[in-house]
Specification:
The chain is mainly alpha-helical and about 450 residues long. About 65% of the residues lie in helices and about 0% in strands. It has 21 helices and 2 strands. Strand 1 and strand 2 (about 320-325) form a beta hairpin. The longest helix has 24 residues, at about 20-45.
Length: about 450
């Protein structure tokens, strides 16, 4: 039976052998490029267009055999281990939020077991939804993903209600996605030289401005730190086709100026400066701004290695005829300071084990990032891991009694926050799963560019 004589017929036969439908378009694009290059070579030798196309197809080889080879190459790489560990942490977090804060006070809506259970179910759905998401398609629309993130942030600033004295409460959950959104923006700017690099830097400004306007200090700091790291890494990988040394120097200096300016605006004067003073010396205002820090430290000092802690030596309040547990004297004891409550009720050892499992999840994801062949997938996954790691660091510091701003321990503190964490992890695992189809176009090597511009 004669084989196909046109490129289109050849590609149809090849892709029919690839069982993963999502991989067919990527494989066809890659193969079509080779076929067109071969056809052009035959055209240059003087062959007619029909003859050149037929010869190019014949030279490529049997389409069924080629398709079978591509089928073996382009297969999803399941991430069952990371999925299972994330789901386990989500379940543990949901149980902790309910079990440790169930004190029988009817006015505490967040203690509703239905809400805790719902957060676990929705979080699991967000994790699996992100996992099966087509990241390759998102990358093709990277610019619009970024624009959508900016629009979502602006809308949330104007439409989000004020909850627990927090202005634009739901904006903070949008800002948690911004390091990943910035990774998409960097991908959209790649291969455009110095103008692309300038656009990449400018793309971080609207994201940071929304975080400042929220205000969400934790989100702004993690965006600055992770965004600068991603941008420097993109330059190192040659994404903008500019000399590596010049690009790193320019962005490094500009990033330092921008970070210094924003941090000065946030922390340099007025109310925020007093917060720094209280952070370092909470004893100067023990019944005011320093109360939360002093109470957290007192709870930790009364905690044991295993089991419930001892006497806090404080006088508890009676509300509606009910004697409140001593840990409830710590503001946000069932939200941001849930890890502190865990230490007091269960002991230091369970808390440290929980942190160790979280660290194992992040290190496992970092190891997968290091093995990732796709630069775009690696950058996106690093944005997610960086976001979760910075959140964890802030949460640990907060729960040691150093209070500067709110911070939540990923997958443990907060119902909606855990859902966002699951969505981010699912996005990273999707990049790992789709590694074989996230093939980046080759960019000129930075060393070559340096020689050319020398």
């Amino acid at each position: 039976m004669p084989g196909p004589e046109t490129i289109r017929d050849y590609l149809d036969t090849v892709t029919a052998q690839i069982r993963w439908k999502r991989a067919r378009a990527a494989a066809a694009r890659e193969l079509a490029t080779h076929l067109e290059d071969q056809r052009n070579e035959f055209l240059a030798e003087g062959h007619s267009p029909e003859e050149a196309e037929r010869l190019a197809v014949e030279e490529m080889g049997d389409p069924v055999a080629v398709g079978t080879d591509l089928d073996r190459l382009h297969r999803p790489r399941p991430q069952w281990g990371l999925l299972a560990l994330t789901l386990a942490l989500l379940l543990v977090g949901g149980w902790l939020r309910y079990a440790l804060t169930r004190v029988g006070v009817p006015w505490e809506e967040d203690l509703d077991p239905f809400r805790c259970a719902l957060s676990v179910v929705v979080g699991a759905a967000a994790l699996m939804g992100g996992y099966f998401l087509d990241v390759s398609r998102l990358l093709r629309w990277a610019k619009w993903v970024y624009i959508g993130a900016v629009v979502a942030g602006v809308l949330s600033l104007h439409l989000s209600p004020d909850v627990n004295d927090a202005v634009s409460y739901f904006t903070r959950y949008v800002v948690l996605f911004y390091p990943a959104a910035y990774a998409f923006w960097l991908y959209a700017c790649r291969g455009k030289g110095w103008l692309g690099l300038l656009a990449a830097v400018a793309g971080g400004i609207p994201l940071a401005a929304i975080g400042v306007e929220a205000p969400f200090l934790q989100g702004v700091i993690q965006l600055l730190v992770i965004g600068c790291f991603l941008l420097l890494l993109a330059i190192w990988m040659g994404w903008f086709t500019v000399p590596r040394r010049q690009g790193l120097a320019a962005v490094g200096g500009l990033a330092a100026i921008m970070a210094g300016t924003v941090l000065w605006m946030l922390l340099g004067a007025g109310y925020n400066a007093s917060r720094i003073q209280i952070l370092l010396h909470p004893e100067t205002d023990p019944m005011g701004a320093g109360y939360q820090s002093i109470m957290a430290q007192r709870v930790l000092e009364a905690s044991r290695l295993v089991g419930e802690g001892g006497d806090l030596s404080i006088r508890t309040n009676t509300v509606q005829g009910m004697q409140l547990p001593p840990e409830m004297m710590l503001p946000e004891w069932n939200h941001d300071f849930l890890p502190t409550t865990m230490v007091y009720k269960l002991g230091w050892l369970p808390y440290l084990l929980l942190l160790a499992v979280l660290a194992a999840l992040f290190l496992w994801m970092l190891r997968r990032c290091a093995c990732q062949r796709s630069q775009s997938g690696k950058l996106l996954a690093l944005a997610v891991v960086g976001t979760l790691a910075v959140q964890s660091l802030f949460a640990v510091v907060l729960n040691l009694g150093f209070v500067l701003f709110t911070a939540q321990l990923p997958l443990v503190t907060g119902n909606l926050h855990s859902v966002v964490d699951c969505a981010l992890i699912g996005l990273a695992l999707s990049a790992f799963r789709s590694e074989s189809i996230l093939r980046d176009a080759a960019a000129p090597a930075p060393e070559t560019l340096e020689k050319e511009t020398a």
